[in-house]
Amino acid sequence: MWVRHATDIPSSEITPESVYRNRREFIKAAGLLASASVAAISGAPIVSEAAQRGRFDTTETVTPYAYATSYNNYYEFGTDKEDPAAYAVNFKSKPWKVSVEGLVKKPAVYDLEDLIKGFEVEDRIYRMRCVEGWSIVVPWVGFSLSELIKRAEPLGKAKYVEFTTIYAPKDMPGQRRDVLEWPYVEGLRMDEAMHPLALLCFGMYGEALPNQDGAPLRIVVPWKYGFKSAKAIVRIRFVKDQPTNTWNKSSPQEYGFYSNVNPQVDHPRWSQKTERRLGEFGKRPTLMFNGYDQVASLYSGMDLKKNY
């Protein structure tokens, strides 16, 4: 059976960055900026507040939409890169509730629409690096995770934030197999979660998140390997002890809790020194922290080979 890979996508299916930006500008000019969060939930186009690249944005070329939405790691829908796009079509991403719980003064269960209200929606163009050696540049739409944390008012004992993906084996065929322990769990240290680069995301490319990219709510942590950015989040829990994240539990010798992009620490089965950008030929050097040097102070004094 022929399987379509990202490199097989014809140019006719690739949305140029100029078209994507023109579409955003048209919507913005039509006066629809205030409806961004509602659009994200309804599936209508999302409006970015930033017409030009902002303080968090990489200056690199945006990966064409067709690549970022057809070549994914999302084991809930299957282990092949093409499985998420093929099997996430019927996934029910609305209505959606998110529980904020644990060591906080203000626990709550939010409808996604209500969760988004009151936060400053931003468009951020981030590099993302997969542990397997490929990378993308994506314009995400969301708000700083730190803003939600401030709203929840964590207690002093809360040292970590844990994220749990929905468990829905009826709609997620990959969860019917025991390739991982379900539901998927990820976590960040509190200072990592509070860093302004950490994003709670509900859109990309000026539109609502596609199911295969983590709809309707995911985190984006651009200085870490992609599996740290949990998708389809239903629970955000504040805890005292380091969470046992799914991939670390499954294969601790390969996937550490921190999982910072570090070209000097090889995966046991391949090098991390170079990467292949989807849509490009050849490889490029991998950058420490994926090029986000502003997070380096979070790990001052730590052995990042031991704490991989």
Question: How would you characterize this protein structure?
Answer:
The structure is a single chain. The chain has about 300 residues and is an alpha+beta fold. It has one domain (about 15-300): Alpha-Beta Complex (Sulfite Oxidase, Chain A, domain 2). The protein has 8 helices and 12 strands. Strands 3, 4, 7, 8, 9, 11 and 12 form a 7-stranded mixed beta sheet that branches. Strands 2-1-10-5-6 form a 5-stranded mixed beta sheet. A hairpin with a 4-residue loop joins β3 and β4 (about 135-145). The radius of gyration is 18 Å and the shape is globular.
Amount of beta strand: 15-25%
Distance between the termini: 38 Å
Q: Number of domains in the coordinates?
A: 1
Shape: globular
List the helices and strands and how they pair.
Layout: H1 17-29, H2 36-42, H3 65-68, H4 83-87, E1 97-102, E2 108-111, H5 112-116, E3 122-129, E4 134-144, H6 145-152, E5 160-165, E6 185-189, H7 190-194, E7 199-204, E8 207-208, E9 218-220, E10 233-239, H8 246-250, E11 274-277, E12 284-285
Parallel strand pairs: 1-10, 4-11
Antiparallel strand pairs: 1-2, 3-4, 4-7, 5-6, 5-10, 7-8, 7-9, 11-12
